[in-house]
Amino acid sequence: MKKKRKIRVGIIFGGKSAEHEVSLQSAKNIMEAINKEKYEVIPIGIDKDGRWLLNNSTELLLNADNPKLIKLNQTMSVSLALSPGEQNRQLQSSSDEIQVRQIDVAFPVLHGPFGEDGTVQGLLKLLDVPFVGAGVLGSALGMDKEVQKRLLKAAGIPTANFLAFNENSEIDFRSVKRKLGLPLFIKPVNMGSSVGISKVADEGQFKNAIAEAFKYDRKIMAEEYIQGRELECSVLGNDKPIASVPGEIIVGDNHDFYSYEAKYIDENGALLAIPAKLSLPIIKKVQDIAIKAFKTLCLEGMARVDFFLRNKNEAIVNELNTIPGFTKISMYPKLWEASGVSYTELIDKLIMLAVERYAREKKLRTSVNLK
After folding, report:
1. Domain residues of the chain, as ranges?
2. Domain 161-224 is in which class?
């Protein structure tokens, strides 16, 4: 009997984003945990200049175990060209040394702009490649936190009050303070992993926070501070999504909030309580809101929904992340492990959801029947 060919999975990571290093960590963990008997991994790194690189070497990453120094090994890589519309030649190598074969499914592990925002998802649709995670629309909505919050509010889903500004806005501290109170948060709209976020208690901090946020995006937002427990819930599925048990983030005393440093650099930056100690009614409420928010933003595949729990029973959505972290300390896979789905099994389910959606979309007509 002929041996069945492994499914070729192109894991796409890195990217032109301030979350580049987080993406490298996530991809490393996925490549280590994926079922090697079922899948053939094709690692595709994107450097900070936007070049797509292929690397067949085991030395794919440099300083792989150091989150501060981790980076792509570009000296062992060759550039890739993309070929939309050319069957069996979606990716072409610039070198004859590394041959590129058609990938069966793509797994974008790109956090932030130029990867999590619908850009790569649109490119993969043009290449006619099934891909893990939200589509173009859902990815764009998940990335733009201002539009996301407007849609959540329109759907009756509780979320924090906010104000949005662009580079030409007149931003008056007293006006913002009057509407949102103090302390408050300043953050880039199109960014994740707490990059560019500042907690503000006075006018001096406010001005510095505005300048910091504009380093990462042309649109920023001021958001009210919500005193409460920080919860997260993982969602998995396409048309019929399911939610994991919620977890809780308990930020360490050496951090003022759940910052980039607390998430990815400082091993003692936060305690992850998985599952969170919550009553059954609150667990059900968080799960129901998470699924409703997932559907409201037209998401598919996966998302992590972040909450604040105020006054013991008021669940308020902070934001949704369409490509959540997959590092060893990331909540998304850890919450599914606590819900009975192992890391390896989770990767398999996400890939199968991508294939399922692709098969469904291929049935749609691409021409008009004039009979």
Report:
1. 7-131, 149-157+227-360, 161-224
2. alpha beta
Pairing state between β 39-46 and 52-54: antiparallel
Q: Which of 85-89, 116-120, 127-131, 227-231 has the lowest mean pLDDT?
A: 85-89
Which CATH number does 149-157+227-360 carry? 3.30.470.20
- What is the rounded distance in angstroms from the CA atom of residue 300 to the CA atom of residue 283? 22
Distance CA 238, CA 79 (A): 33
Phi, psi dihedral angles at 141 (to 5 degrees)? -70, -35
Q: What is the rounded distance in angstroms from the CA atom of residue 223 to the CA atom of residue 186?
A: 6
Rounded Cα distance, 126 and 179, in Å: 44
Tokens of 309: 């729990």
Instruction: Give CA–CA dist 185/76, Å, rounded.
Output: 42
Per-residue pLDDT at 237 exceeds 60: yes
> For the chain, what percentages of helix, strand and coil (3-state, to nearest 5) are there?
30, 25, 45
Which residues neighbour 227 within 8 Å (Cβ) at sequence distance 6 or greater?
Answer: 310
Distance of CA 172 to the CA centre of its chain: 32
Q: Which residue has the tokens 């999975």?
A: 9
What are 330-365's pLDDT values in tens digits?
899 999 999 999 999 999 999 999 999 999 999 887
Burial classification of residue 220, based on how many CB atoms lie within 10 Å of its CB (0-12 exposed, 13-18 middle, 19 or more buried): buried
List, for residues 11-40, the tens digit of each pLDDT value: 999 998 878 888 999 999 999 999 999 999
Closest C-alpha among 354, 290, 282, 349 to residue 321: 290
Instruction: Return the H-helix or E-strand segment holding 185.
Output: strand 184-188
Among candidates 236, 235, 239, 242, which has minimal Cα distance to 361?
239
Q: Kindly report, residue by residue over 101-117, the tens digit of the pLDDT.
A: 688 999 999 988 889 99
Q: Using alpha carbons only, how large is the chain's radius of gyration in Å?
A: 21
Residue range 277-286, pLDDT digits in tens: 999 999 999 9
Closest CA to 246 of 229, 230, 231, 227: 231
d(C-alpha 70, C-alpha 297), whole Å: 33
CATH for 7-131 (3.40.50.20, 3.30.1360.20, 3.10.180.10, 3.40.710.10): 3.40.50.20
What global pTM score does this model have? 0.90
